[in-house]
Amino acid sequence: MDEDQLTEIIINTKKWFDCKVEELKRLINAPENIKIHFENDNEQTVELPKKSRKDFMAGISVALEVIGKFPVNITETNNSDDD
Known about the structure:
Low-confidence stretches: none
Oligomer: single chain
Structural class: mainly alpha
Number of helices: 2
Shape: elongated
Strand order of the largest sheet: 1-2
């Protein structure tokens, strides 16, 4: 695997990570009247009961804290010098 392939993998992984974090944040900020459903492998859905919503949202908040930031910093460099 060369450096360009590795860089592409890291960038794509960061995009995926950022997307998942944003999905969780949108879920936390969803209006109270939005219903939350879970789907299993058989495409059966179950609605999250209203009484469980607060605990579910707290769990997502904790998960976001644990997940934190993407563990790799990505910065662009100007490669005007060809080594």
